[in-house]
Amino acid sequence: MKNTPPKIALKFLRWFCREDYVEEVEGDLIQIFEEESQISETKARIQFIWNVFHYLRPEFIKGFRIPHNLITMFEHNTKIAYRNFFKNKSTFFINLGGLSTGLACALLVFLWVQDERSIDKFHKKDDRLYQVMHVIEEGSTIETLDWTPMPLSGALRDQMPEVEHITASYPPGNYTFPGKAELEDKRVKVKAKYVEKDFFSVFTHPLLAGDQSDILSDKYACAISEETAVQVYGSPDEAIGKILKYEFGQYGGDYVVSGVFENIPSDASIQFDIAFNYEIFTSLNPDIMRWDYNDPCVYLTLKKGVDAKAFENKISGMVKANFPDSKGTLFLRKYSSQYLYGNYENGKQAGGRISYVILFTTIGIFLLVIACINFMNMSTARASRRTKEIGVKKSIGAKRIDLAIQHLLEALIMSLLSMVLALLIVFLILPEFSVITGKQLTLMLSPTLLISLILIAVFTGFLSGSYPALYLSGLRPINILKGGAIKSVSALWIRKGLVVFQFVISLMLILMVFTVAKQVDFIKKKNLGYDRDNVIFFNEQSPDYDALKNHLESLTGVISVSAIRGNMTDGDRNNTPHLNWKGKQEGDFVDFDDVVVASDFFETMGVNILEGRDFSQDIDREADNLIFNKTAIDQMGLIDPVGQTIELWGRQRKIIGVVNDFHLESLYKEVRPAFFRIYNESVNAVVKIEKGKTPETLEAIDAYHKEQNDGLPLDYYFLDDAYDQLYASEQRVSMLSKYFAGIAIIISCLGLFGLAAFTAEIRLKEIGIRKILGSANSQIVTLLSKEYTTMVLMANLIGLPIGYYLVNQWLNTFAFKIDLSIWFFIASGALTLLIAWFTIGFQTIKAAFLNPVECLKDE
Amino acid sequence: METPSLGEFEELVLLTVAALHDEAYGVSILENLEEKLSKKINISAIHVALKRMENKGFVTSRFGGITNDRGGRRKKFYVITAFGKNVLDNQYALRTSLYQRIPKISFG
Question: How much is the pTM?
Answer without folding.
Answer: 0.66
